[in-house]
Amino acid sequence: MRLLFIVLTISFLLLQYRLWVGPGSLAQVTALKQQIAGLVIKNTRDAERNSLMEAQIAELKRGLSGVEARARLDLGMIKQGETFYWFVAPNKERRE
After folding, report:
1. What gap in Å lies between CA 35 and CA 28, rounded to an integer?
2. Domain-by-domain residue ranges, the chain?
3. Whether the predicted model's global pTM rises above the 0.70 cut
4. Measured between alpha carbons, how far is 62 from 56 in angstroms, rounded to an integer?
């Protein structure tokens, strides 16, 4: 009877060790769940960015209006005959 009690106690302690510290422990499972949550957020952000890029590509493939808008915004290009105005915000350091 005493031997059975010792064997059961040792088995219980080994199982408790594995539950709290060993591979597949609760701490490891919690860390993996947090990592998964972070990756889900990153994947969602990347999916949104990809859909925006796909929309931009489709717009550029459809016609010249998208190319023209992109050239105006990114490259500062203007059409022939247009006048370009550049508004500069006043520098706050000069006022003082």
Report:
1. 10
2. 2-79
3. no
4. 10
